[in-house]
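Throughout our pipeline, every protein is held as a single compact record rather than as scattered files. The record that follows is passed on verbatim for readers who wish to inspect the format:
___
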Amino acid sequence: MRTIFQDRTKSILSCTFIVIFGLSLIGSPFPQYLFLQHIPTLIAFVVVPMWDRRWPLSAGAFACLLAMLVIHVIGARYTYSFVPYDTWCQAVTGYQLSEVFDLERNHYDRLAHLCFGLLMIWPCREFLESYQSFSRRGALLTAVLVVMAASMLYEVVEWLAAIILSKQNAEAYNGQQGDFWDAQKDMALATVGAILASLFQWKSR
């Protein structure tokens, strides 16, 4: 089995991610929440190399995994609720997204959940096809269900965190921003992303 660092493309992708992760820790505006936010990142550091050694993925599927981690790392740096995309957009275009689309909250967390659905279909489908002998249709349908289940479990973890942690830490971790239907909207966006990605892969196979 070829490991991540024996594959040139995966090695470059992994090193790029490590650099991005390291830079995200410098001058963090919320250092008190970094460990809490980066629990998923630390799990990924352990699981992804072990997984790829046992069940190697293509460079494209591997890139999807790391792209999702980069999106998370950016969100974790600003605790999701305070990702300054308005500032970035204004610097590039002269406009703020919140003003253009009349947004009342920071929607970076919504983007992350949508991207989770979009990006996880390829790795899940490839694993099921290559190592579990699924047909393309069966792999895509199962991959959508896996994304939906993973999204639901993540929301349950957030709910448990809200119960266990202090109110301030729970809000920093959940990023609910006062939205009563936050969990349902996040799960719905992950599902929409998964369905769109599966349809694209079915049509372009």
Notes: Residues 171 and 178 are 9 Å apart (CA to CA). The chain has a mean pLDDT of 89. The chain has ten helices and no strands.
